[in-house]
Design goal:
alpha/beta; five-stranded parallel β-sheet; three-stranded antiparallel β-sheet; Rossmann fold; single chain; binds 2'-deoxycytidine-5'-monophosphate; 230 residues
């Protein structure tokens, strides 16, 4: 059976990672969370204090330090997935904070950051057998991937999901704060000059505002099976 590359792009909190992980597990493929890589670079910049109180990034300092940032994924049997390591230390929890979410779009606008991460993502997908999710996977990172999905949902559905997720993790963030952050990120991610969030022409669009995870999974799996059998 051939091992293909599956690209899943979409808006923040559109359910990409849940589906991508489920598909990867069921196909016995590697799951690569490209957003985790942008988040890890953001964490690095925050630790170095290169993002000031107004959210301004000290771009030159970050670009000069890119060679000191090593990102890897290490499989955690407890969570059943690869978790992101920044310079050898697992930072999977630290990159999910509201603080990182607030500043990640500024980091992902920097073309030197994107070039470095895109190259790393392409290397990871060499040889196939991967499900990768992000914003530019079907358009820039893996334009030749065999299956492409573009996931979307209403802002309310996405805010509700992300808010519940944060609450489960014990975070005290209001619904409005979550929605404002998602709207901000949608705007910045979709309008930046370098690789904006865009639907690939050949992507299958999944609007999951009113679909259960099981319904989405079945629909996506049927499309993948068609490609595998075709
Ligand atoms: O998928 P996520 O919400 O964890 O991604 C975090 C941020 O990283 C998101 O606001 C945009 C950026 N990102 C990107 O620019 N390109 C990708 N391929 C993945 C994420």
């Amino acid at each position: 059976m051939k091992r293909i590359r599956i690209a899943i792009d979409g808006l923040s909190a559109s359910g990409k990672s849940t589906l991508a992980q489920g598909l990867a597990k069921s196909l016995n493929y590697l799951y690569i969370d490209s957003g985790a890589m942008y988040r890890a670079v953001t964490l690095f910049a925050l630790r170095e204090k290169w993002i000031d109180r107004n959210g301004e990034l000290h771009v030159d300092a970050l670009v000069a330090a890119l060679d000191r940032i090593f990102l890897t994924f290490r499989f955690n049997p407890a969570s059943g997935r690869g978790e992101i390591c920044l310079n050898g230390r697992n930072v999977e929890k630290e990159i999910r904070t509201h603080e990182v979410s607030k500043h990640v779009s500024v980091i992902s606008k920097v073309s030197e950051v994107r070039n470095k991460l895109v190259r790393a993502q392409q290397r990871m997908a060499d040889g196939g057998g991967v499900v990768m999710d992000g914003r530019d996977i079907g358009t820039v990172v893996l334009p030749d991937s065999e299956v492409k999905f573009f996931m979307t949902a209403s802002i309310d559905a996405r805010s509700r999901r992300r808010h519940t997720e944060l609450q489960k993790r014990g975070r005290d963030t209001s619904f409005e704060e979550v929605r404002d952050n998602l709207e901000d990120r949608d705007r910045i991610d979709s309008t930046r000059d370098h690789s904006p969030l865009q639907q690939a022409e050949d992507a299958v669009v999944i609007d999951n505002s009113d679909l259960s995870i099981e319904q989405q999974f079945e629909h996506m799996m049927a499309i993948i099976q068609d490609t595998l059998n075709g």
